[in-house]
Amino acid sequence: MLAKRIIPCLDVRDGQTVKGINFVNIREAGDPVELGAAYAEQGADELVYLDITASLEERGTFAELVEKVARTLNIPFTVGGGIRNEDDVARLLDAGADKISINTAAVNNPEMVEILAKRFGSQCVVVAIDTKHRETGDIVYIHGGRTPTQRVTQDWAREVVERGAGEILLTSMDHDGTKNGFALEITRELAENLPIPVIASGGAGSREHFVDVFKAGKADAALAASVFHFGEIPIPDLKRYLRENKIEVRL
């Protein structure tokens, strides 16, 4: 059985790590390079860095940050936010990122998933899906959670798999930052029906929530931010707790 992965997520704005609730109410959480190094030391399996400014002016600054992170870290890390084309991806991978994450660009141009998978390999391509539950079902959102689309989350997930995505990063906007637990139902639905790993994101607030997302949600990895950034759940303690609950993790 493959070990389950614990992945801290660092949202970066103006060179600082920040965190919000339901994609708003942003507050600063520290230096992204220092935080990343600390997480690697504590036993994080991977990291995700997201450029939430993602303006043209910040693009070069973010690539410089990626270079600093690559020089510091000894674990894999994914970068995303504002990626629009192959050149953006090449720049970030050349800077030292192991994987890239795309959301809005993939929805606007689904063929981009195929293009990136063929050029860089599926293992480099993570498709991030921001989802919100509506009366009509689970709907995909883009532009950092600001814009609803007509796409049904489950259908979109299947499509990106067919187009060559290597992983799916599923963020429940309803759960994001609430610390009330992950969205177990949709996570399980995707994890059980897709042939690629599903990373669950949004809602972590306790060690029990991680047990739930791995056991009931069937996730391959769990991503969280504020509970790690503000020291609420130390990663070594979390991993020992998961082991005690018969969940395979790397210690």
Name the CATH superfamily assignment: Aldolase class I
Radius of gyration from CA coordinates: 17 Å
CATH hierarchy: architecture: Alpha-Beta Barrel
Please state the average pLDDT score: 91
- Total beta-strand segments: 12
Report strand %.
25-35%
Query: Structurally, how many domains make up the residues?
Result: 1
Structural class: alpha/beta
Query: How far apart are the termini?
Result: 15 Å
Main CATH class: Alpha Beta
Uncertain residue ranges? none
Detailed description of the structure:
The chain is an alpha/beta fold and 251 residues long. It has one domain (5-244): Aldolase class I (TIM Barrel, Alpha-Beta Barrel), CATH 3.20.20. Helix content is 38%, strand content 28%. An eight-stranded parallel beta barrel has the order 1-4-5-6-7-10-11-12, surrounded by seven helices. α1 (32-42) runs parallel beside α2. The model has no long low-confidence stretch (mean pLDDT 91).
Helix and strand arrangement:
Layout: E1 5-13, E2 16-21, E3 24-30, H1 32-42, E4 47-51, H2 56-72, E5 77-80, H3 86-94, E6 99-102, H4 104-108, H5 111-120, E7 125-134, E8 137-142, E9 147-152, H6 153-162, E10 167-172, H7 184-193, E11 198-201, H8 207-215, E12 221-224, H9 226-229, H10 235-244
Parallel strand pairs: 1-4, 1-12, 4-5, 5-6, 6-7, 7-10, 10-11, 11-12
Antiparallel strand pairs: 1-2, 2-3, 7-8, 8-9
Helix pairs in contact: 1-2
